[in-house]
Design a protein that fits this description.
The complex is a heterodimer of chains A (about 325) and B (about 250). Chain A has about 325 residues and is an alpha/beta fold. Helices cover about 25% and strands about 30% of the residues of chain A. Chain B has helices spanning about 40-50, 70-80, 95-110, 130-135, 190-195, 235-245, and strands at about 5, 10, 35, 60-65, 85-90, 115, 140-150, 155-160, 165-170, 175, 200-205, 215-220, 230-235. A nine-stranded mixed beta sheet of chain B has the order 9-8-7-10-6-1-4-5-11, sandwiched between helices. Chain B has a two-stranded antiparallel sheet with strand order 2-3. In chain B, helix 2 links the parallel strand 4 (about 60-65) and strand 5 (about 85-90). The termini of chain B are far apart. The chains are: A alpha/beta (about 325), B alpha/beta (about 250). Chains A and B meet through helix 3, helix 4, strand 7, strand 9 and strand 10 of A and helix 3, helix 4, strand 7, strand 8 and strand 9 of B.
Chain lengths: ~325, ~250
């Protein structure tokens, strides 16, 4: 029977929604027993949130001042030690999980499956390659642990209402001191989180400047939406890197995605193809974004967006 | 002698629209343009800049692949690398096996820094650098957007979901590049001529004693599900009406 350990992602005492999505992915494996491990300086609040997720059997806590920041080199040996009791180890395919889990896999001497988007059996999964231009079905060996990151846009968050037990786990491994956290500059916009928002308004190269990006923020605020950006807009310095949507940025699945002045490079489309409804506004009627949009409008974003805000008044 | 080892993967060019073979056994690569993985090109550019600022004395580019991979290594030499190593293998390696091969190269070359791209744009795995750092038992700084060397340490700014994160690592270490680390230089014709004279060593994969047997079996390749064609609206009023009617706003 599958015993799955999910590595919780959290910050500031809050469990990241990517963890609840990983739980849903794990629950697609029939009869699986799902545990979540919280590594932190102080794990209480986060453990309680993880214990409330339906489908979770146990929450393990590993409290250590060294776990205050998610440094892969520090966390990996602890997770590798805990993995002994499990058949599967999952983490979300966010920058947290992408950084951490391959290090865990290598310590365990096994390969890793990245970005699993569907579970076909305990050892067979589907995942995208070539920026989502192809989907492969991959079989993992049954005599080895399955170490995998979960493509969070492919799964809903596990619902609340669970009542898992919380246990402190004993991990005695030597932790390296060769990697030290210095600082994090988090954008605190007060807007919804891009990765979990139901609505996203995104701007591309056509926005033209950081100053002009205010028309994107303005519409987003009107809709209670998160703000995103294409790689071109981020590269040009119009928007910060954490807003980038696409192959190398964030992969998102909102109910509504409004692409403003985004041409629709394949690398960008990879990041939005699970959006329920895509709206594209672009001056160029030939822009590839219109091929995937559910609703398209050919027009100048500087006229359309303020007008749209008014009409939605 | 302070060396930087840079990994260059040969991949289908960034601008090629990749297609799945009709029989689902793979990706169409016949007659398709191949290039250096874009993230690896950024990694090499960073290595060259570090050397130009006096932070290293030699930049070595290395790749694992078929004989044709010499083309990508020559491009790396033309960009400014001092020499190249090709670990020849006609079958692709999984990231763990690739990391084991790079560990062998580390044992041979003792680099101070190993710079890799954060992911190959073919398999999108994003694993090799992290695995190598684990096997080497050294620090990793993934998704780097800024690298500052300070004696035996490096301060690396990383692109993370929450914004930017800075960590300090002891060297030697593995650093993987993100998109905004730098903009790679263009190769000039005289550099291409010069690159032909630079040393390119070929090593047979089998001679390294690395178990490169794949762990995973790809059972089939499929094109992604297509999104159904949408509608075009003529003006903002119609857009607003459709959004309201669908309950989206």
């Amino acid at each position: 029977m599958a015993k799955i350990l999910i590595v919780a992602e959290h910050s500031g005492g809050k469990l990241n929604a990517s963890t609840a999505k990983s739980v849903t992915c794990a629950s697609k494996i029939e009869g699986a027993e799902i545990d979540v491990v919280v590594l932190a300086a102080s794990a209480g609040e986060v453990a309680a949130q993880a214990a409330a997720l339906q489908g979770v059997k146990r929450v393990l806590t590993v409290e250590n001042p060294a776990n205050a920041e998610p440094l892969a080199a520090v966390l990996a040996p602890q997770i590798a030690a805990l993995a002994a009791d499990y058949t599967h180890v999952f983490a979300p395919s966010t920058t947290f999980g992408k950084d951490l889990l391959p290090r865990v896999a290598a310590l365990l001497g096994v390969g890793q499956l990245s970005d699993i988007m569907a579970v076909e059996s305990p050892y067979r999964f589907r995942r995208p390659i070539y920026a989502g231009n192809a989907i492969i079905t991959v079989e993992a060996p049954q005599d080895k642990k399955v170490v995998a990151t979960v493509r969070t846009a492919s799964f809903e968050a596990a619902p609340q209402g669970g009542n898992a037990s919380i246990e402190a786990a004993n991990v005695s491994v030597e932790l390296p001191t060769h990697t030290r956290f210095v600082e994090r500059s988090a954008a605190t916009s007060g807007r919804p989180d891009l990765q979990t928002a139901a609505r996203v308004v995104s701007g591309g190269r056509a926005v033209g400047s950081a100053e002009n990006f205010k028309i994107i923020y303005s519409l987003a605020d009107k809709l209670g939406a998160a703000v995103g950006a294409s790689r071109a807009a981020v590269d040009a310095g119009y928007a910060p890197n954490d807003l980038q949507v696409g192959q190398t940025g964030k992969i998102i699945a909102p109910e509504l995605y409004i692409a403003c002045g985004i041409s629709g490079a394949i690398q960008h489309l990879t990041g939005i193809k699970d959006a329920r409804t895509i709206v594209a506004i672009n001056k160029d009627p030939e822009a590839p974004i219109f091929e995937v949009a559910d609703i398209g409008l050919v027009g100048d974003i500087f006229q359309v967006l303020p007008e749209l805000e008014k009409q939605l008044g | 002698m302070s060396k930087i080892l840079v990994g260059l993967k040969r991949v289908v060019d960034y601008n090629v629209r990749v297609r799945v073979k009709p029989d689902g056994t793979g990706i169409v690569t016949e007659g398709v343009k191949m290039s250096i993985n874009p993230f690896d090109e950024i990694a090499l550019e960073e290595a060259l800049r570090i050397k130009e600022k006096g932070g290293a004395t030699e930049v070595i580019v290395a790749s694992i692949g078929p004989a044709d991979t010499q083309q990508q290594l020559r491009t790396g030499l033309a960009m400014g690398a001092d020499r190249a190593i090709l670990v020849q293998s006609d079958t692709p390696l999984e990231p763990l096996a690739a990391a084991k091969v790079f560990l062998k190269l580390i044992e041979k070359e003792s680099p101070n820094i190993v710079l890799l791209g954060k992911q190959g744009i073919d398999d999108d795995n994003n694993q090799t650098g992290q695995m190598l750092a684990a096997l080497w038992n050294r620090p990793q700084a993934t998704f780097a957007s800024k690298v500052e060397l300070d004696g035996g340490k490096a301060k690396v700014t990383r692109e993370v979901d929450a914004g930017l994160e800075t960590i300090e690592i002891d060297l030697p270490a593995v650093i993987t590049s993100d998109l905004r680390l730098n903009e790679p230089r263009y190769v000039k014709l005289p550099d291409i001529m010069k690159a032909k004279k630079k040393p390119l060593e070929t090593i047979e994969l089998a001679s390294l004693g690395v178990d490169a047997t794949p762990q995973f079996k790809v059972q089939k390749y499929e094109p992604p599900a297509a999104r159904s064609k949408g509608i075009m609206v003529k003006d903002v009023a119609e857009l607003a009406a459709v959004l309201k009617q669908k309950g989206l706003v």
